[in-house]
Amino acid sequence: MDTGIRLALTLGQISAVMVAVLLTVAALTLLERKVLGWMQDRMGPMEVGPYGILQPVADGLKLFFKEDIIPAGANKLMFSLAPILSLVPALIGFAVIPFGPDWTVDVGGVNFKPFVITDINIGILYILAFASIGAFGIILGGWSSNSKYSLLGGLRSAAQLISYELNVGLSIIGVLLLSGSLSLVTITNAQAGGFWNWYFFAFPFPQAVAFVVFIISSVAETNRTPFDLPEAESELVAGFFTEYSGMRFAFFFMAEYANMILVSCVATVLFFGGWHAPFEFLQGPESWHWLTGMIWFTIKVYGFLFLFFWLRATLPRLRYDQLMRFGWKVLLPIALGNIVVTSLFAYIFPGN
Amino acid sequence: MGMIVFFYFASVIVATAALVVALRNPVYSALALLVMFFHVAGLFVTLHAEFLAIIQILVYAGAILVLYLFVVMLLNLRREERFHHQLTVGLFLGCMLFAEAVLLVVKGETSLGADLPALRESAQLTQGNTESIGELLYSTYLFPFEIASLILLVAMVGAVILTKKGILEAKG
Description:
The structure holds two protein chains of two kinds. Chain A is an all-alpha fold. Chain A has one domain. In chain A, 64% of the residues lie in helices and 2% in strands. In chain A, strands 1-2 form a two-stranded antiparallel ribbon. In chain A, strand 1 and strand 2 (110-112) form a beta hairpin. The radius of gyration of chain A is 21 Å and the shape is globular. Chain B has a domain at 1-80: NADH-ubiquinone/plastoquinone oxidoreductase chain 6, subunit NuoJ (Four Helix Bundle (Hemerythrin (Met), subunit A), Up-down Bundle). Chain B is 80% helix and 0% strand. Chain B has eight helices and no strands. Chain B has helices at 2-22, 26-46, 50-75, 87-107, 116-125, 129-138, 142-163, 165-171. The chains are: A mainly alpha, B mainly alpha. Chain A binds chain B through residues 75, 78, 120-122, 125-126, 128-133, 135-136, 139-140, 143, 151, 154-155, 158-159, 161-162, 165, 182, and chain B through 27, 31, 34, 50-51, 54-55, 57-58, 61-63, 65-67, 69-70, 73-74, 127-128, 130.
């Protein structure tokens, strides 16, 4: 009985989160074009629905009904597997993100946390591990297409992911040192009570530098401009998904956007207090925390997503060797230095 | 229930490990290895070692296997070049490992370090086993840990030297 209730609750929670994430993905495809249009002084999509707000529906229908082509000489099994291997790791990471207060509700004798699917004590490592699995989809997609552009795109992407994953991992160690936990729920709870407790500003050593390293590496890891070399359209047609069409292409596309949302959520939780409001009184009374918490979380996540679009509209693409040199010779030493300084401060001011 | 889960993981691990060496296409081998790593991680989870499970995926599947795939694609190996004549070495190592496994099964696990039960207890007592692994690594096993770091450092320096051929030639 208990198992049944737990299963039903968890499945319901997973579907709710998945629907929210996929709706956000759909909204982002429109939002990105609107924001880019606004920054470039034009309208963006305007034809479908009022102000073009139905554009994602039209795009979805178009991709759904498009003919699915498998190129001659492609490895059919790998060609079909690659988009799935790319999308699943992107979606699975949301399982440990706390969207709201750390409440435990008793439903029919089962302890149930409504705002986080599962609070495992290695949450952040779980996200990093599955982010690195996403590289398989990209490499296999590039390799199985039997096309030179795809292969080059896949190889570039693999090198880029491995290099910048390291910086993501090292840049968050400062936060983990200060919070003393790998669980995202515990990290969020440690940042309660106002914006000066957020790890971006927090007392022993503010993690602002680590945050900059984290956000640059995340942009690189999600293959966004200015680090979108794997899909540089001026050199590689479309990179590793050159040969893909229809729903398989849509899977890669959704994976990229889901990854963007995921790193925005992680940045929010680790550096900007998760669901906590910048001032205590903006959080409202205790019983309203679920609502204000989710609202603040959404505002912060969308802020980071806007940053992604802003970067895309502003910065030109890097050259491949510049990208590698920047990752290994600039970001890596900064991240390592941040760890040393943070641990020194954590040692001098213990128990904060 | 626990036994069913264990035998599922164990049988998949053995089957995929056999596939890694049996499959002709190196990319398929790498994918079989990926499935195997995930099932080894599953075994760790059943032993309440979440930290090891996720490190297994992060390091082996996420980093090392990606590098394997990278090399396989860069070199574009032809099939016959993959098989070197290492049958004798392989046979020797295989026999040794099999003998060790048999010995361990016959003797029971008592010979495998006295503080294993203590480790298991501490892993279950504390909230997670991340803390207990950290404490053991930096107290009881500090010396082996430092040696491992030193070996890794040497390997890193070696890798840097190898990529910078000019250094050696200028001096020699």
